[in-house]
Design brief:
The complex is a heterodimer. Chain A is of the alpha/beta class. In chain A, 36% of the residues lie in helices and 17% in strands. By secondary structure, chain B is of the alpha/beta class. Chain B has a single domain, classed as Pyruvate-ferredoxin Oxidoreductase, domain 3 (3-Layer(aba) Sandwich), CATH 3.40.920. Helices cover 40% and strands 22% of the residues of chain B. A 6-stranded mixed sheet of chain B has the order 2-3-1-4-5-6, sandwiched between helices. Classes of the chains: A alpha/beta, B alpha/beta. Bound molecules: iron/sulfur cluster (SF4) (2 copies). The site of one iron/sulfur cluster has 15 residues of chain A, from α21.
């Protein structure tokens, strides 16, 4: 054993490696992204196959295939990614696997970087799969190995659900220096009854699954990470990171409290929970997202005619949305115990603080693309459907260019529905390159097939920027370091039947505006590909500055672009040289030509 | 020994690396460390906060509880004010003088000044160390040293108990890319010299 300081996502990756994982696939999504990247980072021998798949459904299916052949496979995604992968997930739960397979779906209470506050534990109940729910990076390291062991033993995929504070929390962790090496996978053995899903086999498998889960309710009661601490007539049941908040809060509450920690919310450790409820009569449940543990305990009270009162989200004693913290948990526990809280310290006369919405970076090509479309469509009836990625930030003032955003790929299809109802509007669909490959293509097929009028705008910045710059099919780079042939979005569009396609550099401002104006006049599905690299993959250009002699202080650059590098200092417009990326957009729109490039790039 | 530290700033200022360096230095001293980072959309110019908890006994919550930070490192004056409720009554604040205006300032209603923030800090905490970051940048010849400079000031203030400047230098050498060693090590010395001058 030795100590290493690891982020939760690294701990999951290392735990998987130490469990002998052969095959890792995934799709980037905060807070899960670093798991797959960490496996790739520590895969110097190249013994583990690692890929970013085109989307979560593909990731889950390739990992299932690997597990059919006897491999240990790991799939990573964020919680909304599991929605995309839910089709194969639901069926795979019936078919099962041969080697072992763990599906990490990272939840995001808050939400901090997500569209929803959905709870993967409910997905576990829905798909009837076991789920492991760690409360710290240390537990994540140990429990991911247990997840593989259970998967292998029961020949079923197993879900693993960390939350943001586990994924992005770091801790000093005891890691195994001599991990056991894994055997080579046996290979695929043909067996129609096993690998081909049929109504009859599904009926039989359904019976088996229910029986297995019934057994697991008692087997998991002895799982070391499910446990009871302390004793007393009042109890607190908790799981995930909330366990750490409860422990922190209880340090200041001198009362005997019995604690139940649930690390496998499904199948629920029933015997252990019954033991916990024996002799307690009031129980507070502390958990994030949905009241999963609370419902299980309430159910057990009914099933076993227990007199316990269960308190929590369902009784409105704990918050129903948002993430927990020590303060929130402590307030809940004090109210539950009937203890008067200490009067809150009044924060006196705090000056008004600036609001800092996240913004597109200085030099971001999306700013130029949005601005060109905005100018071209000025005064015309147009709707701008957006999608998931950095470019969602195009919604902010002053650009104000994202009217809708729902889920991956929905820009292409929402625009079609809008257009059917209001055909006199020009309906734009903005989609990033990675999102286009992930889930935009079918929407375009739908538009062409059903003969809809939309303007598809592909924002091609040659990376998956929002999640930290992962490669994707259009980049031609893979996680194994190979160069594959880059998939061309334009060729795909042509093959689908989109013939009116213009590729333009958004930083060529006048040409970009002209191209948009022209293409908007046509009917049918037409496309603009704005091609310019994300600043993270482009080399910086010499920066710009404002010539104070000719600048008339009209403020156009500041007011219209929202570039973080353009500031007003002592009433004068200036450009912050440490932030400017030299994209030239502001210089192209300045009416007096006062924004000039410096000779060399300054740090 | 227990040190709870909060590092706060604006996405892109380098808080994540700073908290890693602190954690490394504390682990070298045999302490338990737990940290929590802001990663995701907020990194695009939003408010970011890193929690660093150091203790010689087990730590539970990954987040520093309110009113209990021993040290608050503000990479920007307004962000230090925002996180001030985390500071304990006897805690120390290290803050960079240079303000970063949010992009929403094109709508001038949200104007604020760094000096108003600093005077609020002055009134509301017992120990305040203001770092003239522009001066540090000039002396070091780079604006990329803010995180190390602030860490150096924090360590120099003695708020980290067992961690001294040599430990910090060792941590920098272990975690920062070799081509940036000289720059960052000189930033440590520069800041300490500046603080020394101010106290004369
Ligand atoms: S657009 Fe040109 S003239 Fe107008 S404020 Fe900006 S730099 Fe000055
Ligand atoms: S050139 Fe202008 S728009 Fe582009 S990054 Fe620099 S200041 Fe911003």
């Amino acid at each position: 054993m030795s100590k290493r300081f690891l982020m939760g996502n690294e701990a999951i990756a290392l735990g998987a490696i130490h469990a002998g994982v052969h095959f890792v696939s995934g799709y980037p999504g905060t807070p899960s992204t670093e798991i797959l990247e960490s496996v790739a980072k520590w895969n110097s021998s190249g013994n583990i196959y690692v890929e970013w798949s085109v989307n979560e459904k593909a990731a889950l299916e390739v990992a299932a295939g690997a597990a059919y052949a006897g491999a240990s496979s790991l799939v990573t995604m964020k919680q909304v990614g599991l929605n995309v992968a839910s089709d194969p997930l639901m069926s795979l739960a019936y078919v099962g696997i041969k080697g072992s397979m763990v599906i990490v779906s990272a939840d995001d209470p808050g939400p901090i970087s997500s569209q929803t506050e959905q709870d993967t534990r409910h997905f576990a109940q829905f798909s009837k799969l076991p789920v492991f729910d760690p409360s710290s990076p240390e537990e994540a390291y140990e429990m991911i190995q247990d997840a593989f062991a259970y998967s292998r033993k029961y020949q079923t995929p197993v879900l693993f659900r960390p939350t943001t504070r586990i994924c992005h929390g770091c801790a000093s962790i005891d890691v195994n220096d001599t991990p056991t090496s894994s055997d080579a996978p046996e290979g695929f053995v043909k067996d129609t009854n096993r690998w081909v899903i049929f109504p009859r086999t599904s009926y039989l498998n359904h019976l088996k699954i229910e029986k297995r889960n019934e057994e697991l309710r008692s087997i998991l009661s002895n799982y070391p990470h499910n446990f009871i601490e302390g004793s007393g007539r009042v109890g607190i049941a908790c799981g995930g990171v909330s366990y750490s908040y409860v422990k922190e809060a209880l340090q200041d509450i001198p009362q005997e409290i019995k604690l139940l920690k649930v690390s496998t919310p499904h199948p629920f450790p029933e015997d252990l929970a019954l033991q916990f409820m024996q002799g307690t009569n009031e129980i507070l449940v502390v958990e994030e997202l949905d009241p999963v543990i609370e419902q299980e305990l309430t159910f057990l009270c009914g099933k076993h005619h227990l007199p316990d009162n269960i308190h929590g989200k369902l009784t409105h004693e704990m918050p129903q949305a948002g993430e927990n913290s020590t303060e929130i948990v402590k307030a809940g526990i004090l109210a539950f115990l009937g203890i008067e809280p200490m009067p809150a310290e009044s924060s006196s006369d705090m000056p008004p603080l600036p609001v800092r919405p996240p913004v597109l970076c200085a030099g971001c090509p999306h700013r130029a693309s949005f601005y060109a479309v905005k100018k071209a469509m000025h005064g015309k009836k147009a709707v701008f459907c957006g999608d998931i990625g950095c470019y969602t930030l195009g919604n902010a003032m002053p650009l104000d260019m994202v009217d809708t955003c729902l889920c991956m790929g929905a820009d292409v299809t929402i625009a079609q529905g809008l257009h059917r109802i209001e055909p006199d509007a020009v309906n734009f669909a903005f989609i990033g390159d990675s999102t286009f490959f992930a889930s935009g293509i079918t929407g375009v097929v739908n538009a062409v097939y059903n003969q809809t009028d939309i303007v598809l705008v592909i924002l091609d910045n040659s990376t998956t920027a929002m999640t930290g710059h992962q490669p994707h099919p259009g980049t031609g780079r893979t996680m194994m370091g190979n160069i594959s042939s880059a998939v061309s979005a334009e060729k795909i569009l042509r093959a689908i039947g989109v013939s009116n396609i213009k590729t333009v550099d958004p930083f060529d401002y006048e040409l970009a505006v002209k191209t948009v104006s022209e293409i908007a006049e046509y009917k049918g599905v037409r496309a603009i590909i704005f091609k310019a690299p994300c600043i993270s993959v482009a080399s910086p250009q010499p920066v710009f500055h404002v010539d104070s002699g000719t600048c008339i202080q009209c403020g156009k650059c500041l007011r219209e672009l929202g570039c973080p590098a353009i500031v007003k200092e002592d009433g004068k417009i200036s450009i912050e040289p440490t932030l400017c990326y030299g994209c030239s957009l502001c210089a192209q729109i300045c009416p007096t030509g006062s924004i000039i490039r410096r000779c060399s790039h300054e740090n | 020994m227990k040190t709870d530290c909060l590092l706060c700033g604006v996405g892109g200022q380098g808080t994540v690396l700073a908290s890693k360096i602190l954690a490394f230095a504390a682990m070298e001293k045999g302490c338990e460390v737990r940290t929590s980072e802001t990663i995701g959309m907020a990194q695009r110019g939003g408010c970011v906060v890193s929690h660093v908890r150091i203790k010689d006994t087990p730590i539970y919550s990954p987040l520093v509880p309110l009113h209990s930070a021993d040290i608050l490192i503000g990479f920007e004056p307004a962000e230090a004010v925002r996180c001030l409720p985390y500071l304990s009554a006897s805690g120390t604040v290290i803050v960079s003088k240079k303000e970063i205006r949010p992009i929403t300032s094109w709508n001038s209603a949200s104007e604020y000044t760094g000096s108003a923030m600093l005077s609020y800090l002055e009134k509301n905490c017992t120990k305040l160390i203001v770092i003239d970051s522009e001066k540090v940048f000039k002396l070091c010849g780079s604006s990329r040293v803010l995180n190390i400079a602030l860490l150096a000031a924090a360590v120099h203030s003695g708020s980290f108990g067992g961690i001294n400047t040599d430990d910090l230098k060792h941590a920098v050498k272990s975690l920062v890319k070799p081509q940036f060693h000289e720059l960052n090590l000189s930033a440590i010395d520069t800041v300490i010299a500046l603080i020394g001058e101010d106290n004369k």
